Amino acid sequence: MCRKFLLMCIAGALHMPWTDASAVTQVGNSPILQTTARSGVGTGSRQIALVIGNSDSGAIPPGNATNDARSMGALLASLGFEVSVLTDGTPQQMQQALAAFHARLAGGGVGLFYFAGHGLQVGSETILVPRGVDGRSPASLLVNGIDLGSVLAAMSTPRADKTNLVILDTCLQSPFHSADAEEPGLPLPEQTFIAYATAPGGFAADGIGHGAYTRALLRALAQAPQRDIDTMIRDVERVVRADTGGEQRPWAVSSLARGFRFARYPGSSAARSTNSELASATIVSLRSRGIMPKDSSEQYELTFWDSIKNSNYASDYEAYLKAYPNGRFAALAKARIERLQAAASTAAPGAAPGPAPSAPPAASKAQAATPQPGHAVAASTAAAEHQHAASAMVATPAPAPAPTPVAVAPKAPDKSAANSPAAGESKDCAACPVMVSLPAGSFTMGSNSGDISERPPHHVTIGAPFAIGKYAVTVEQWNACAAANACPKLSGENGPGTNAPARDLSWDEVQQYVKWLGKMTGKPYRLPTEAEWEYAARGGTATTYWWGEQMRKGNTNCKGCGDPWHDERPENVGTFAANPYGLYDMGGNVWQWVSDCWHSSYKDAPADGHAWDAPGCDMRVIRGGSWREGADYMLVSTRFKYSESVRQSQNGFRVAKDLK
């Protein structure tokens, strides 16, 4: 994939204030980009810094990368830089920040780019991972990641006193094992210095409050910034190797002809405070700043291909070829790119599009998860649907149309079984979900053996009984809301079956359904909290799966977990066995939205079962895995996140209800 970053086209529109220390640019209600004014005595040359820290991941100790960015921003401001700090930036926000950075550099002077967070290496290319990018989707990492080439392009503008400094506190491991790690091979612009926290193919460690590399760099800048940058970075490298017992080996490349030295400003309080808060060299996680798959290398390539094989975006296939230039599907990927390009070139410019297809083409998770470079930004559900439709019109002769659904789903219960309550169950209207009442109780939530986001395990008490859906909400039940004009119509991803789980739904759209259901019945319907969901999923057990410690075929709808299984769609609700509480599909079939805001661990999580929210939250928790994931996602503790305003074909939900 060759990402085209249209810097000049959007720089003017994205111009931001750079002289007011309190200036904040907002997306929605969430401050994401703050600008710190230059302070102290001038150096004769402007110095401009863009500092980004993305801690939005379960693999990075909570807040570490954002702490890195804020500390680095404050210290650089004390050294005379005009500093912009972006924390937990989405792909669009990172691109906007780079465009504004590019525009500011046109005035001349030193440009410094700093990034802390997840990263990876694909061949000779370094990829920086934005907030919200789905680490389970290989294509998403490449399609939505920000490559180092885009950063260097933003800093390449000809200017007086030009010097470029790039500092990357991120891993350089490759999850794509066929793309062997090699030294980054991008042409190094003149008068440019790049400092990497680790060697090619290596990892970057985290300590208490800061990354190991950033901690060493902050101390060096605070103590003696006037040294030549080559000398300073070599000292930082020695400290990091010592702190990590030689496990992490930073390196740097340079084309500096004039050299560069930072300048200390008199009476810098930022430098003194930074120095005092970095006393500990304790390493808490050696492999924390890179995304590595749970799957084996062979399985990961299959996961990659499965996630894009029905896509109508050439960029998805280009991403596959970048990761696997000689992969088993390389020839097919090239053929699909050629067909998509041929289809696009034959579309007459300005011609009215033909009739819209009855169902939008399947898009990869990379396309659905986050706004993408090179495509219209899905700022809302409506915009996302428009993007799907527009793509379908351009690429009508799709190279891999979605498979035709099988006429009869094996073992599927009939409609009455899925919609009629049994003893101890309730149903508030003909179109309402069947609800199962659960008692109050206590359980241990989370796991020490799973992903870091599932830690620490903690005791939770559900203080009052509540009811939860026996099944995920079905297509038929959603359509009742759509018929009342209270919910949007389901996308073509859902197919014709009425007893299948409703899916390809955003969290925001699910809220519309819950509101309609409550208004129609007069009952307090809502989404379950994350704690309620896990309490219900465990069914009174404390094992890895609700049925025991080992995967057993036929208990859940997931890849490799037994028949019936079809790659193209989930099964009808209730096809597999119920857990001890009589609830179906609490693992597999579709991911299920819950009410909580995403937090990267359970540190400080509520212990009373209530929803864990956060101001300005736009990333929500999904639970349970889907039919397209493998057995290692079916654990009752598995959790993940998704943007609340974005549809995804594997995401559905079930409802909960308070009991008076």
Overview of this protein structure:
The protein has 17 helices and 24 strands. It is of the alpha+beta class and 660 residues long. The protein has an 8-stranded mixed β-sheet, sandwiched between helices. Strands 14-15-18-24-19 form a 5-stranded antiparallel β-sheet. Strand 1 and strand 2 form a beta hairpin. The radius of gyration is 26 Å and the shape is globular. The N terminus is likely disordered.
Layout of SSEs?
Layout: H1 7-11, E1 24-27, E2 30-36, E3 47-53, H2 64-78, E4 82-87, H3 91-105, E5 110-116, E6 119-122, E7 125-128, H4 138-144, E8 146-147, H5 148-154, E9 163-169, E10 192-196, E11 206-207, H6 212-223, H7 229-243, E12 251-254, H8 269-276, E13 283-285, H9 297-308, H10 314-323, H11 330-346, H12 365-369, H13 381-394, H14 415-419, E14 425-426, E15 435-438, E16 441-445, E17 458-462, E18 466-469, H15 475-483, H16 507-521, E19 525-526, H17 530-538, E20 591-597, E21 619-623, E22 639-643, E23 651-653, E24 656-658
Parallel strand pairs: 3-4, 3-5, 5-9, 9-10, 20-23
Antiparallel strand pairs: 1-2, 2-4, 6-7, 7-8, 10-12, 11-13, 14-15, 15-18, 16-17, 18-24, 19-24, 20-21, 21-22
Can I get a quick summary?
The chain has 660 residues and is an alpha+beta fold. Helix 2 (64-78) packs parallel to helix 6, helix 2 (64-78) runs antiparallel to helix 8 and helix 4 packs across helix 10 (314-323).
